[in-house]
Amino acid sequence: MAASCIHLVFLLCLVPATVASPHRNLRKSPLDVAAAAPSPADASRPTTFFEVDRPLRPPPGSSGPCSTLLLSSSFAFTFTKPPATAAYSPPPCLAAVGGRASAISLAVLEWRATCRGVQFDRIFGVWLGGAELLRGSTAEPLQNGVVWSVSKDITRYASLLAAGNSTLAVFVENLVNSQYTGVYYANVTLHLYFRRTPTTPPPAVAPADLIVPMSRGLPLNDGLWYKIQNATDVASKGVALPSNTYRAVLELYVSFHGDDEFWWKNQPGADANGPFREVTVRVDGVLAGAAWPFPVIFTGGIDPLLWQPITGIGSFNLPTYDVEVTPLLGKMLDGKAHLLAFAVTNAVDVWYVDANLHLWLDPGSTATAAGLVSYVAPELAAATTSSRTTASREVSATGWVKSSYGNITTNATQTFDFDSTNAGETVNQTTVAHAGVAATDVAGVLYYSVQTHQRFPLFLDSGADQVTVTHGLEETTVAAGRWSSGPRYQLLRNTQRSSVAGASWGIRQTYRYEATDGCYLRNVTSSGYSIVTDQSSEACVKGPLR
Ligand SMILES: *[C@@H]1O[C@H](CO)[C@@H](O)[C@H](O)[C@H]1NC(C)=O
Ligand SMILES: *[C@@H]1O[C@H](CO)[C@@H](O)[C@H](O)[C@H]1NC(C)=O
Ligand SMILES: *[C@@H]1O[C@H](CO)[C@@H](O)[C@H](O)[C@H]1NC(C)=O
Ligand SMILES: *[C@@H]1O[C@H](CO)[C@@H](O)[C@H](O)[C@H]1NC(C)=O
Ligand SMILES: *[C@@H]1O[C@H](CO)[C@@H](O)[C@H](O)[C@H]1NC(C)=O
Ligand SMILES: *[C@@H]1O[C@H](CO)[C@@H](O)[C@H](O)[C@H]1NC(C)=O
Ligand SMILES: *[C@@H]1O[C@H](CO)[C@@H](O)[C@H](O)[C@H]1NC(C)=O
To answer: Ligand 2 site: residues with CB under 6 angstroms?
Structure first.
């Protein structure tokens, strides 16, 4: 939503973080929904909405949790107002175990919120010291109220949690008036688990030593994200790296609103820049990598009933995207500021983008040295017919970093494929992303490698009488190497099918996680607001994985 909107005809602006055109048909006014949708069977209490996810378990031998309420706030007319903030200090229980980030075996951020009345779904973010920890869409409330919670593994931010005093900021972009009455109330809680025996974390694969926020700093009358409004708009920030950096990973937070909320639904050649989007990351103008986003459908998307009570994949807890920057460190270790820039190919108004730069620092030296060995990044390949859009990209960079660990060469490769067929009422789209990182020394010894393969299928059938959305998030990760300490193998298959016809609707979802650190299976179906079947298990069907 453009900030200038507030100065225009006020009523036109009372749309969500999701202004409607050109997809008015893909959004229903919550006023109409409230008038037409049936009430839940028990209207005396708020209805619980949830996103299917696996429970977070601390590693064996952990103590905890030690839970701390970080912030409790209400969010009424927050649009163009400053974020809610709270002073953050590392919890005393962390100090009691020595205060070091490496004492944390699992950190969980819990977001718990309620709302009642009539309101759009809204976008929100949680930042600590300017680094984003969580981005989500709010639940679209019912008259009797909704309640929902998200638990996110934030262990990778351990250094930030331990670093000392800072500011926690929460921004929920909300508008309240006589028609849209829903006020959000939210609590943000940190749960920490600790290792019973102190360990020396493995280099490069443990949580980063330093996290540098790539966001807009406080004070602000808005969220800390950058707003990218078109295909040529670039958000950038200069950052000077510590001279003993030996690994760098940029983690991107991305969400799409207003005219680009349903970018994947665009008819090629007809609607705003067609259905292909990517977020690119440049270091001093050189393409470091990209994110081809999972098409999150927010809780009010298409028809809110599709996402009640089981919300769309990623909608309460948006996925983030990592870009390995290590091979490009050669140019960045001179102590000077270097420009990190984000852009969105084909964007129309508006994308909210920011990032966290995760840095690993050499404990055994004050300066590392680095050099680029090879770099291949052909132009984006894209093709369009009247109904089909395809795109592919590859970025591959190899560079060495000499630290007290030795002279280690890192190869980082990303490949992407996108295929979308739009036949008017139906959209059939698949995004495939592969990311590989391999670090070896001069003798060829593998220190760590991580290969991630993701597939995001999306099928929309929007007939006159019935709308069906089938989408999935599939991810396989294989890790290896001398420093590798986490699960060697992780497979996730999360598939959801939601269907609405008039005032009757239902959802089927299967979530299958199989990994060397455990398994989780959930198969849940709903009809209207009620859960019809719900089976879950933490047993590994195929027996212990190794
Ligand atoms: C937030 O915490 C307070 C204090 O424990 C509690 O009264 C309130 O109900 C909580 N709100 C939510 C949304 O969970
Ligand atoms: C951090 O904040 C706490 C609580 O406000 C305060 O007691 C402490 O002195 C602060 N520490 C530093 C180093 O500023
Ligand atoms: C793109 O957006 C930027 C930032 O709002 C603006 O300065 C620029 O004029 C826009 N370009 C086009 C082509 O609309
Ligand atoms: C590190 O190894 C690469 C080859 O793998 C070599 O080109 C580079 O000069 C070495 N760096 C140092 C500082 O020895
Ligand atoms: C880097 O990895 C990619 C993908 O595995 C491979 O094709 C490429 O040859 C590797 N490059 C170097 C320089 O090792
Ligand atoms: C979607 O397209 C793929 C090929 O890209 C095809 O295999 C699949 O059957 C299609 N799905 C539907 C529901 O038509
Ligand atoms: C999930 O549960 C439904 C209803 O009980 C059943 O029909 C379906 O076969 C199950 N699917 C899987 C993958 O277990």
So the answer is: 87, 89, 164-165
